[in-house]
Amino acid sequence: MRKVITSLLLLLLFCGSTAKADVPPVSIRLNDNLHMSLHNLIGKGLPVVYVTTVDGVEPTCEIVSAPAGSWGTTINAEKVPGRLSIYDCIDGVDSTLYDSGDYEKDVSGMTIRVRGNSSARPERKPYKIKLQKKRDLLFRGDESVFKDKDWLLLKDDNLFTSTAFNVSHLVGMLWVPGHRYVNVVINDVYRGIYLLTESVKRNPDCRLNVDKDWGFIFECDIYWWNEPVYVYSYDSPNYNYTFKYPDEDDITEEQLAYMQSLVYAFETCLTSNNYPDMIDVRSFATWCLVHDIMGIKDGGGCNRFYTKYDTTATSKIYMPVAWDFDMAERTPSAWSRCHTVYMKQLFNNSNRTFINEFVRAWCMMRDTFLDDVTDHYNEFVNSNEGRALNDCYTLCNVIWEQNTWFTHLASWRHQWLEDRYAWLDTQIMAMHVPNDINFDGKVSIADVSQLIDMLLGNSEQMLAADISGDGNISITDVTELVNLLLR
Known about the structure:
With 487 residues, the protein is an alpha+beta fold.
């Protein structure tokens, strides 16, 4: 009976659209016993990222362990040249959305390599794609804005990354990478569902904007020992700093010397009262909040990205993007692990500016957060991409005998966030100074002015400003606040 059901399911899965256009008539190997035409894979509803490497070379990597005295295990991987095409069904017709052409350095084609650290150890790898000519592989409509050479194919089987990117939007992170789900084929072998996403890099039009000559994108990196260029951490030698910009081949001795002094000043300032002079406090607070909402256990390790626009004194250090969510949902009733490193210093600082910004960021979203999350999931599950994703998960389950169902995962994500919300709201609001409407850590006439601005529609209302406790923001709250100040 099971064989009959499986055969019927495969028959349904392999039915695709009936119209074909400019896509090659190739057969894709699903496993040792199953094949599918590219035409039928396109019919599953997700774009197909189709990679053919020169001479069919498989992108591989070697595992590298940390030297004595250091931590972690990472990889070394070689770039493999090849060709990349993206296919999709447009108005019922199989269509080529993009074709890089055959590889010719700086002219056409692309290179692919395995990326990641622990995520690269399983058989199914994440990848980095580098085009030889810039292009927006998400096809957002304006090539002059979104085009770039560097793109990533991330494993997101548990929907952690897409969920965290949505939370990043709600929290107000400075930059959230564009992304979408795709099916990936490499050398005619199906590799599964991936999240095609922008990488962390300098691109002043659409990613991270720093000065071309004296700007920096750097990372507090546990895997620094596998990089040729880095600067030392004074706070913790196991987490030194590596560079996303400038490139390791381009960075000068002068820039390295500047960064070494910057790191010392940065780490020192976090334990002083004047840290707001050096860091953009709001970006640090929102970065921490994303990790707390997602319950990240390893948020204090790698993937802490920082930017500094240039070397002027007015240029502050930002935490512009939250990244790496493999260890999400590990702290259901506790703070995320980022509280044990730099954020611990900021939370314990006698200067409350960071705490005030952390509370403000939460209050700006807490009233509508669960509704926003629910709306996002309902919209996504019922979208063409969501329905196609569920269909493709079903395909993967048949191929690899997995038990992953998108609709179950979406429901699970929503339940996690709902449960997590209750714990977080209690903990964060305990940090809030009662009746502090403008989140400066004290109650004064400035709070009355802020409350009036809310009533006049000049600033966003939030229930944290409900002084009377009746569930509404009204003139009654202004009266109560004034009376409190006059006591």
